[in-house]
Amino acid sequence: MHQTVDDTMASQSTKNQTTDEHVKTSQRTFVIASRASKLAQIQTNIVRDGLEVAFPSLSFGTSFMSTEGDKNQSQALYLLGGKALWTKELEVALKENVVDMLVHSLKDVPTTLPDGCEIGAILERENPVDSLVVKQGLPYKTLEELPTGSVVGTSSVRRVAQLRKSFPGLVFLDVRGNLNTRLAKLDAPDGPYTALILAKAGLVRLDMGDRVTADLTAPILFHAVSQGALAVEIRTDDQEARELCKTLTHQETLWKCLAERALLRELEGGCSVPVGVSTSLSQTDESAGQLTRAYLTITGCVTSIDGSLHVQDTLAQEVESIQGVEELGRKLATTLMSNGAKAILEDITQDRRKRATESQTAE
């Protein structure tokens, strides 16, 4: 049986929020691990630095490794399957006590985790939008300005599906690799790409925000579930790590992301399924650093691969707990499914299986 990430965090929210004095004097060196890319290392250092500020007497180290998603750069993400591509090898090291914490982009984390693992912290979210990045030297400032037939690079089926709906004259081409690699492919004089679509948060964290040509916001492009947020994964039996992580969690980000993840879990969407969201909180109340009430608005959409079918809806209500936040996300999923999203997702699953079979045959 797999553990639901958000059930774990919900149970944590009812526990004593005071950090155990035993943790403050721990003699352990807590090893924080992530993927080996430059962006992943920067994100890991953000977590390490936050912990060192909160717990200056404790020792923290870092470790980096490649995952299956990093190693397989030839196949489209759409054909490779779910989000465990980015997390599985790391979780093996965590469960074997080789490392103590994993840092992930939360959008890459499955909505259920292996037994023995849980999300210990969700950090404050960067701007979750996607951005247009135009090839250096070209004059275009918006998607609307790109000439018909322009090649736009992205590995995200969600982006392609939504943008095909509004920009049928553009050509979308898969592009893999870390951000530096993708930007090099974009700027190569003989490269095919006119522009790329990238998550703004990664560019900002890499101090490359100046490459953003324009932000692509809803309703043109709804971002991925949990995009822009970092998560720390720990072992469920590691109470010391759990206590440390409490200092990192940003409450508003937590509530927004758990609503989005509940929506995705109900839709059974994976890493390359075109589920888009936009979430906001207002009228928030807090007690002892914890959110106790807020007005939550969440919009979700599911789009067919060719952009011809698009199902979108919005729900909003006052919520008073993580359970209430997740219930609103599930309710939105049910609404979307009844309005046509179920048929779209079934078609996408069949299409992926067909293309994966064709790919294996070709090899």
Write the layout of secondary structure elements.
Layout: E1 3-4, H1 5-13, H2 21-24, E2 29-35, H3 38-54, E3 59-65, H4 68-71, H5 77-80, H6 88-95, E4 101-105, E5 112-113, E6 117-122, E7 130-134, E8 151-153, H7 157-166, E9 171-173, H8 179-187, E10 195-199, H9 200-205, E11 214-216, E12 230-235, H10 239-245, H11 251-267, E13 275-287, E14 290-303, E15 310-319, H12 322-362
Parallel strand pairs: 2-3, 2-4, 8-9, 8-10
Antiparallel strand pairs: 1-5, 4-12, 6-12, 7-10, 7-11, 13-14, 14-15
What does this structure look like?
The protein is α/β, with parallel strands linked by helices and 363 residues long. The protein has helices spanning 5-13, 21-24, 38-54, 68-71, 77-80, 88-95, 157-166, 179-187, 200-205, 239-245, 251-267, 322-362; strands at residues 3-4, 29-35, 59-65, 101-105, 112-113, 117-122, 130-134, 151-153, 171-173, 195-199, 214-216, 230-235, 275-287, 290-303, 310-319. The strands form 4 sheets. Strands 3-2-4-12-6 form a 5-stranded mixed beta sheet, sandwiched between helices. The longest helix has 41 residues, at 322-362. The chain starts with a strand and ends with a helix.
Short description:
This protein is an alpha/beta fold and 363 residues long. 37% of the residues lie in helices and 25% in strands. Helix 11 packs across helix 12.
Major sheet summary line: 5 strands, mixed
Rg from C-alpha positions? 20 Å
Sheet-strand content, in percent, reads 25-35%
- The string of secondary-structure elements, in order, is EHHEHEHHHEEEEEHEHEHEEHHEEEH
- What is the global morphology? globular
Helix content estimate: 25-40%
**Taking strands numbered 1, 2, ... along the chain, how are they ordered across the largest sheet?**
3-2-4-12-6
Number of helices: 12
Structural class: alpha/beta
How many runs of DSSP E, i.e. beta strands?
15
**Poorly predicted tracts of residues:** 13-18, 69-85
